[in-house]
Amino acid sequence: xxxxxxxxxxxxxxxxxxxxxxxxxxxxxxxxxxxxxxxxxxxxxxxxxxxxxxxxxxxxxxxxxxxxxxxxxxxxxxxxxxxxxxxxxxxxxxxxxxxxxxxxxxxxxxxxxxxxxxxxxxxxxxxxxxxxxxxxxxxxxxxxxxxxxxxxxxxxxxxxxxxxxxxxxxxxxxxxxxxxxxxxxxxxxxxxxxxxxxxxxxxxxxxxxxxxxxxxxxxxxxxxxxxxxxxxxxxxxxxxxxxxxxxxxxx
Amino acid sequence: xxxxxxxxxxxxxxxxxxxxxxxxxxxxxxxxxxxxxxxxxxxxxxxxxxxxxxxxxxxxxxxxxxxxxxxxxxxxxxxxxxxxxxxxxxxxxxxxxxxxxxxxxxxxxxxxxxxxxxxxxxxxxxxxxxxxxxxxxxxxxxxxxxxxxxxxxxxxxxxxxxxxxxxxxxxxxxxxxxxxxxxxxxxxxxxxxxxxxxxxxxxxxxxxxxxxxxxxxxxxxxxxxxxxxxxxxxxxxxxxxxxxxxxxxxx
Amino acid sequence: xxxxxxxxxxxxxxxxxxxxxxxxxxxxxxxxxxxxxxxxxxxxxxxxxxxxxxxxxxxxxxxxxxxxxxxxxxxxxxxxxxxxxxxxxxxxxxxxxxxxxxxxxxxxxxxxxxxxxxxxxxxxxxxxxxxxxxxxxxxxxxxxxxxxxxxxxxxxxxxxxxxxxxxxxxxxxxxxxxxxxxxxxxxxxxxxxxxxxxxxxxxxxxxxxxxxxxxxxxxxxxxxxxxxxxxxxxxxxxxxxxxxxxxxxxx
Amino acid sequence: xxxxxxxxxxxxxxxxxxxxxxxxxxxxxxxxxxxxxxxxxxxxxxxxxxxxxxxxxxxxxxxxxxxxxxxxxxxxxxxxxxxxxxxxxxxxxxxxxxxxxxxxxxxxxxxxxxxxxxxxxxxxxxxxxxxxxxxxxxxxxxxxxxxxxxxxxxxxxxxxxxxxxxxxxxxxxxxxxxxxxxxxxxxxxxxxxxxxxxxxxxxxxxxxxxxxxxxxxxxxxxxxxxxxxxxxxxxxxxxxxxxxxxxxxxx
Lengths: 251, 251, 251, 251
Hints:
homotetramer
């Protein structure tokens, strides 16, 4: 807490509410506990003080993030108060999505394992059951080769690539990144985390169902209506995941 | 315990025995610990005071349910003493099955992951080994589109849909719900929980066996006889599951 | 401990050494912790006092077994000192194998999940890697229908069925039971537990490898030589499994 | 600690720094916690005092290894101070790779489960996502039959077989061992452990993606560039894995 308090005196720094920092810590821990991220991956939230800023951990494993690790960034991906803390190479995933999507208030980037196969094959990810209705809008595939050429380490390591990813995402909730992972967005941390967790669940179930035979997917209308219903129920899984992820933690 | 005691004075409320409340809490925790439910899903038990009532948690993740969260409902799905507690949208799954099936004393609704693929493909779920003999009676598939039309969020959110699900279930122990999940019933909490857990196990094993080749399923007679034997052994897994699920819990 | 001490005074009862009782408790806990048994399944060891007796838990989930639950049986499946303790319906699996196989000193019966599909399809279980060399001798399939007819609950519930299973097992280390589970035997508890755990591992790997393409299995000679080597290394996994299974246990 | 201190006085023994011993203990625990090794498998590190020596545990399950179990070996596979400690039969995997590969400072040998199927079928293991870019160099397959003939227990139990494995490995990061397991090497413990963990992850994802359809793998250039980037990020997963593996441990 000392580190955050020490920032409060700085001129020009619109310090985010501590509850938002705490919620972002919980989101990091949940995503690890639910198997969406491992040592890699990151989650951010738009500042509640100004839409031109967002919060993101310093470069570290999400499962170990504490309040003192949360940094504030502007929409160019610059840290406002980096001090000696390393930043994620791919912070531009977040900055460019916030820049292009005013409705988005939280972004999850992960290599969640069941989703990766859908990014490297021709099978579209589609909603198998109502909880994943948000996938009814489809999941765009980002082919970094189209923007970075062949000489790439696959990372979204600058604003131009971040902007290309944001354009691919368009107004969808999820984008798959070929040979890399995926990104899920939401109008709150809870919605983005919910979508990241259940994109992984849907991918696993869809792969399982495909080996049984042709799949009777949700229709577009079923998916849209189910998604609207689920958005009112986000607290239910969040409370469970938070309890499970934070047990034994002092954070 | 205070909350339950405070109810005892109310006129007209046939308060269920506290042991039944406690057993329902254990059932909630077991279903979460065994991976049958996650943040969603619910389990109910018919009242031991009157067959026209049943017990069900307030709207929350089953893994967090405690005795103070258990509410009593009538067979129209009305909470008798809701106070400020939210109720599950899909309580009509329970009320309508209790209404149509006098033999049923407990109902589990879940999105257990291995079962969902069998609800969205044409592969019948059939018993692969003796523990799942109860599946010899077959598992009906509930297609909500047939009853709610195309404008549905997939939820069994009123009595009419609950009644349609109950008719689809008929006298079977399990019904699959297309694009949603499944329901398992029993003549006791232990039997319904046993069936919910082992429906998930059978679905996973059947999918695994299908990729090896044609499956030698239990015959109808083998299934029926095995189910009868297993019904006398329900305490064995229940004791294990309870111990595992309640360890470290004060509930 | 009182219960065991109280038996010592009984005339005619050759009380097994307490270290063997303790090792059988550990075997029960390991098999649960390693996912070989769940609420069902059982493990026995031949008495170190007389080859005409064996030790087996009372009827309960293996994961909860303590020293006070261990009972002694003769080779007809009769409990020597049952008191009020229920016995496993399928104790004849153990008694008949001990009767027919003088070399066997321990028997595991389980429904381990990856093995069941190999018992209900035509795919022979074969050793994929050296740790499972013991499978080079092949795994017999026991079709209970051939012995009990069509009116069966699938259980080996009498001496005749136990004897049929023992004949099917022959001199092999493992037999698959169609629509039921499997049995693994060994010349010690450690060897039988090792074989039960790694039969499950081999089944999972073989199913996984089959979907890649034709499998280059161990030759009979490789399997036999590997098995001989592994038999000298049983303490290594046992020590790990025991530590993991008994942590936090007072048993 | 006493055991290590007692060695310091011995003439001719270049005692490795205690931090390297501690790091090797952590590597053992991580590999177990991450599911790369079970009761079998081992990890070594080249001495920081002399490149002609390496550190390896006595023969035991990696998940139980403590500082007092770490032994020093020369490049012929001889223990310098064995006392009464048993040595791994396959220490020649390590000694011969260190002999032939001056760049290698750590070696992991495991039977990690998703990798084994790729060693017994014709499907080449290839990098599916950027984290596994190191696999762009390909993974050699070691067929022990070509060197030991048909009379083998599959173990690399002498220097000649170790040398054959080292030749098969060549300058690659990973070799698959048919019917046995695999070996991953690195220029540090962290890199070798990273490669062992993510070889397992890639194998599982590749098998999953294959059942969806043809896979769009990383190109050689993408793989090489991604691997270079990842090599600068090894501390991130290591810190997570260490925390997770060592929690509750006094080692």
